[in-house]
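hiii so my PI (J.) wants the whole complex modelled not just the main chain, which honestly fair. so below is everything: two entries, each one labled with what it is. i double checked the lines twice but i was tired so who knows lol
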Amino acid sequence: MGQTIVEKIISRNIGAEKVEPGQIVTVKVDRVMLDDIMIPFIVDKFHEMGFCRVWDPDRVVLIYDHLVPSSQLDDIRHYKVGDEFAAKYGIEHVHRSDGICHQLMTEAGYVKPGDVVFGTDSHTTTYGCVGAFSTGIGYTEMAAILGTGTLWVKVPETIRIHISGTLPANVMSKDMILRIIGDLGADGATYRALEFTGDTVERMSVSSRMTMANMAIEAGAKCALFAPDEKTAQYCGVSLDGFQPGLAGDRDAAYLKTLTYRAEDFVPVMACPSQVDKIREVKDLAGLPIDQVFIGSCTNGRLEDLQAAAKVLEGKQVAPFVKLIVTPASRKVYEEASACGAIGTLVKAGAMVTHPGCGLCCGRTGGILWDGERVVATNNRNFLGRMGTSKVEIYLASPAVAAACAAAGAIVCPL
Amino acid sequence: MEQFTGKVWVLGDDIDTDIIIPTQYLALKSIEDMKQYGFSPLRPELAGKIEKGDILVAGKNFGCGSSREQAPEVLKALGIRCIIARSFARIFFRNSINNGLLLMEQPELWDHVREGETIEVVVNSHVSSNGKQYPLTSLPDNLVEIIEAGGLVKAMQARNGLAV
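here's the output for the full assembly
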């Protein structure tokens, strides 16, 4: 019997020939990501546990993104605690204003195919886009990893998502993952791994795969993996070693189930308030007036996303009463999107462009809305109160759909 | 076997951690500062009404969404004794165990229990509501070890030779 991708990664990590779903094992951690909101809590727990050294400072990455730029006085304490901790324990990978944690972890080369990675943010599933096993944990477990370099995990069962064929021109990977979450349900993959296969997936960019791995948590998934290929190698800046090219699910691996999709059947969709699995076709929502559009986040703030939005808004203007806010996922994306003209096009159309960070997505550092207002957003959650008051309606969509809505002042489907 | 009674608060499906404690309060200095905002997007009055020893009964996928460990810590600080849900989201489940907050899955109780009633819980055995018993399953051994140590912090303290 063969193995799924996540089973192969865990087997190699623990030095076993094979692992079975349900088995509880202790893995050696290749990399950890600590985000600014959680840092003071992690540091407190680390000291309370009685550790006096970090197991391997080179494997630790601190990223300030949720609270950047600061918007409450307490935020500054989070940077200070992070800086002091890094200095005391010799941690050199500290990003103070470079972008959103999940974008940086892959973009800056901290994650390689086959790695086991944990982060104190639920969207840590993102790194499955390069074939890593990565998932979100709380601050107490992070403190324990900093001291021991290990964590227990239960080997998950795997659900395979197979997609083949050619996507319609107005469909982005966001539309695909939203549809899949709708089909699975918000808890349809809880405790499980997702594995994406098929020629459609193979032709997708690493950025598009990242959007899908990022949102797997919205179906409850522990992780979401794509087999690494030459595109992955190029993106990660590595040449694939002996293990990595074999990181595809075996033909005779035991999958819990397989969902099969024809790429041609995907259409632009939205997640409606206030659950991510409440999916409807954009054309069925057309005409609903909107107050704001947000294009950005670790889900959809990459170069191809900003280019897709710019293409839709080229030569157009944002509707008079709509605020369009654009947040590139990282400084590098910001630079590239500026250089290729996408940022210029968006600004000319009426966009406000903010510094890379998480603040808009979680209603923490700006762009918050009031009772009865409606926002179309490219991020990953439309939960009650996520972007302002609990009576704000958040519709999640692709960057192309979001840009079209910004110009129309209402929900509209791009051609 | 551990046994206790408590007054019930009933919540629905997919109660996410943004509802349990919204992002804008996560960087307050302490859990004590945060707890007044518990459930504020959904039921702003709830945090002020929960008393020590109360029990939450919820539908499926309780604790979905963000990995914020402030969520189980806030519930504990509010005095919640245990949570009985149809199912729990994965990260919330681990975070709760690590903080010694008792979670139990029970598929049927939610359909029958009424808010405000008092139920009796016999851990690893059953819960009694309105004269009817609903079975409870046991936790895996490695989690029982963490709970018995008093949470993950205490387990690590023991490992590091600190007096517990």
